[in-house]
Amino acid sequence: MAMERETLESVAVRVLEWHKLIEVVASSARSGMGAERCRALRGDATLESARQKLDETTEMVNLRAGTDPFPALSFPDLREPLMRAVKGAPMESHELRDCSVVLGQAEEVRRHLNRHRHDAPALHITAQPLIGIVEFRRLKEALDAAIEPDGSMKDSATPELRRLTHHAHDLKQTMRHRLEQILQSRRYAEVLQESYFAQREGRYVVPVKAEMQGRIPGIVHDVSASGATVFLEPRELVELNNAIKVAELEVEREVRRILRELTDLVAGQADALLTALDGLAELDCIAAKAELSARIKGNPVALNDRGRIMLKQARHPLLVLTKERVVPNDIFFDETVRVLVISGPNTGGKTVTLKILGLFALMVRAGLHLPCEPESEMAVFSAVYADIGDAQDLARDLSSFSAHIVHMIDLLRDAEAARQLDDAAERPTTALALLDEPVTSTDPAEGAALAEALLARLAQLRMKVVATTHYTALKVLAQTTPGFANASVEFDVHTLSPTYRLFMGTPGGSSAIEIAGRLGMEESILEDAQRRLHTDDRALDHLLNDLHQKQRRLAEEGDRLALARAEAERSAREAQELLTRLQGAEREERKGIKRKLTDEFLRARAEVQATIDSLKQERTLLKAKDAKQRLVELETQARAELSPPVERKPVEALVVGDLVEISGLGMVGTLLEVPQGKKRVRVKVGEGEILATVAGLVGIAGSSPTLPDKPSSAKPVASHRSILRPGELDTESLTDVRGKTAEEALDLLVAALDRATLAGMPSLRIIHGHGTGRLKGALREYLKDSPYVAAFRAGERAEGGDGITIVDLR
Length: 810
What we know:
Blueprint: H1 2-15, H2 18-27, H3 32-39, H4 47-65, H5 79-86, H6 93-115, H7 121-126, H8 128-131, H9 137-146, H10 159-184, E1 198-200, E2 203-209, E3 218-223, E4 229-234, H11 238-268, H12 270-296, E5 302-304, E6 309-314, H13 317-322, E7 329-333, E8 339-343, H14 350-365, E9 377-379, E10 383-387, H15 400-425, E11 431-436, H16 444-460, E12 464-469, H17 472-480, E13 484-492, E14 497-504, H18 512-518, H19 523-532, H20 535-618, H21 621-642, E15 648-649, E16 659-662, E17 667-671, E18 680-685, E19 688-693, E20 697-700, E21 732-736, H22 742-758, E22 763-767, H23 774-785, E23 789-794, E24 804-809
Helix pairs in contact: 2-3, 2-12, 3-12, 4-12, 5-11, 5-12, 6-9, 6-12, 9-11, 10-11, 16-17, 18-19, 20-21, 22-23
């Protein structure tokens, strides 16, 4: 039974072209081991494992798109050299260099994932065996100290190797000097074929003319292809050549000793290195999955184990990779639907829909993103079966019909066994079966009946089945049976081309006669075929065609509505952005006007104050008071223009808790007592109270009476804002500018000076705090030049110290 399950699933993998998709993933891997891991992708059939793998891919996509991208994993496959090392065979220097490369990559990945443990928890768990390995620093340092990046042995690997290398180098330098003397000597001038030296069998030789070799005593090591030149080691160089050979053997022996020593170090860490290789290969495979997600514009989707499939704008991944435009489709059928029957004309896209579902089922098990919208949901199936295409088996002498039936028998037997196992474990059966035209190539009536029975049985076995068909009986079954549903693909008979659009909930007609007519079939044959159709079949075909026309119009209308809605939302966003910009511009303009008017008021008040001072001396204050009154009226008019209109409430209608404005002071507070029959009333302003004249009160309409908070009994200096007790308004006023910017504080100070001067107050208190001193300095610098200020000073200890400035007004 295990072999049959494997065989059935292997058939599904083949017909769904899973290998093509996996080869695309493998091509994105940076290492041979990573590509090997990609080609072996199948995925587990559990929901937890699928979610884990999908989270890994999603986190890798995010890391690759971030400012600190995941490192590229290009590393060599060391499994075979490590196995040899464990068995005692020495490693070559380039293999030891590869060990250093792997150790460096493992350390780089460890540091990267430790930095992103909160951004990529699933990857951190997956790479835990790699992260948990003790640092390879000592081993890597030993390898790097002995091996060059190009894989050769460093002369400085050990002091002995350095000495031996230098000794051999010195001997070779001596040899070259001797050879240059020989080449330049008169003795050799006639016998040398050419003026150069060479090496043969590791010994230095000179090219001598063959006919003159007897004139120079020595050893012949080689002869040229023409025989005209012999390569002769002169006798006078034999001992020096011997010395060089011995020196080279000593160097080689020392190199072998070093390689043996380093191999022993590597063999001691072989298990850890193999673990590191495995972890790097897995991460390289996950990075390749992330690359595929970018290429197919994939997204992570919600997963379930209940058979619920809700795919929005799904596209076949292989078509996305090879075509510029792929028609997306919505495929919705939840866990209540066990069998989905897809009908419609040939070449309409029914088989493509089957393959989309099959590939998506395999992709989520392997942790691959799906080419659909992120709001989609896909079921995780314990097994995927597919009977698609021609199943003819010539080796077993089976026709297409017989081969399909054999597959169905195997599928039923496998499904029965799976259901028994799932019943024993008290879990739902979650296998997916994809059937392309089940029970065809036989008598249509018998084929339809057998197909009905087959689908009914598979539904009883709790399998999720998607089948394509031309059988009317199956369409009726899907429309009338609980747990069954219809779907259809669209074919444009005018252009004789499929639209590849899928319509859920309605069956489709074959349109065979109409398509034949479009292709040029004789009209008489078409009419004869129409007459031979049963009346019910003709009526059903017309009904289905009419239904499809209406559904297409609805779909087109839905597309237009979606476009209109998107356009409306875009227009609304643009309008909101424009409104925001206009409001910002208006605020800036109002601030500019306010600053300009404030400057004008300051100049005007300075002139008025100068006039007052002059008139005081002449004792004609009436004109001064008139001037000041005109200034107050001007200010009131300007503030009204700058402020939005506020509906006023008559004083006689005011009650306790109403909001009131104290004219002349620009303050707004809460009324604490009924003004009827009184000249002065208490008004709560901020956290303090003032005594205001009833004639100077202006009620603000729309304010609901609220019970006033109990006035604080804290001392003025200790509280956040001092409380002005009745009677204090005539002697001084308080302004708190703590926490404001210098510009905001100056605006508040100018307004306070205006109010205090207009109210005839002798002094003003400004709370600015200590802080850095910049705010205090800016305020006091302004007070030096103010025409309203007679003098100012820092507060005394009891008044609040240097955190308060006391201003005496003119």
